[in-house]
């Protein structure tokens, strides 16, 4: 893959939110300032996403979450190779690539950004059995029908939740496509699990994973990646089994918007 010239700012960014952190890309003798969450600009450049987050900042989340998911599924005697997985917020296929190495029956990607699908087709062709570019907060009837027909056994969402990338309503909709007895695997920044965080997304996640609709198998704190200063950023990997149909009004009942 192509190597890019990346430069991190000299000033300390500890007090800057992850979604507001910026870096410089030196390209054609120009300095281009990009945010970490400028996904379209990043995906449009072959290898930039991997070089930034995986080579420089040592992100390990796809490997960690996929391994914990497989361990949980194996512990029940179910066969991981029979899983039909919806990878929500699939990006350019980093999580999908790890799942594929473990072997899954079907792997479907979904993302709201068209550039993510294009990058995946460019960098990891034929990884997904299908890849949808759509908004899970506002699916068309025919899209809902498509997702229901896949009969998903599992939903994964890695490095895509919180910070507004996938709002509660979108994640909840993804969960609704997973059959009862299926699996939900995702990661989330450690602060979102603290009761001092009263934002809608944090409240939604806590209410859901400790509800009667989920059987929590693993909640593991791990080093997601490094900050630009080289400090560890910790996340939780969450793996749960869906034990019952979650009511459609779950978000409203728990006072969560979006």
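^ Assign residues to that structure.
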């Amino acid at each position: 893959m192509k190597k890019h010239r990346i430069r991190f700012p000299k000033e300390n960014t500890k007090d800057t939110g992850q979604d507001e952190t910026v870096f410089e890309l030196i390209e054609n003798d120009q300095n281009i300032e990009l945010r970490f969450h400028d996904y379209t600009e990043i995906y449009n450049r072959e290898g930039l996403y991997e070089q930034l987050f995986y080579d420089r900042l040592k992100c390990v989340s796809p490997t960690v979450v996929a391994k914990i998911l497989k361990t949980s599924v194996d512990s029940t005697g179910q066969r991981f190779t029979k899983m039909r997985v919806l990878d929500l917020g699939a990006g350019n296929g980093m999580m999908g690539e790890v799942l594929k190495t473990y072997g899954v029956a079907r792997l479907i990607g979904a993302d709201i950004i068209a550039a993510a699908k294009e990058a995946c087709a460019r960098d990891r062709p034929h990884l997904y059995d299908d890849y949808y570019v759509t908004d899970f907060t506002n699916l068309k009837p025919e899209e809902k029908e498509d997702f229901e027909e896949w009969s998903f056994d599992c939903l994964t969402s890695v490095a895509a939740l919180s910070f507004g990338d996938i709002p509660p309503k979108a994640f909840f909709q993804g969960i609704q496509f997973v059959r009862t007895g299926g699996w939900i695997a995702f990661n989330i920044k450690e602060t979102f699990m603290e009761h001092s965080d009263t934002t809608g997304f944090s409240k939604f996640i806590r209410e859901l994973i400790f509800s009667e609709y989920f059987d929590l198998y693993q909640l593991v704190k791990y080093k997601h990646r490094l900050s630009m200063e080289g400090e560890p950023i910790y996340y939780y990997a969450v793996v749960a089994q869906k034990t019952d149909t979650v009511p459609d009004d779950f978000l409203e009942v728990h006072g969560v918007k979006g």
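The chain has a mean pLDDT of 90.
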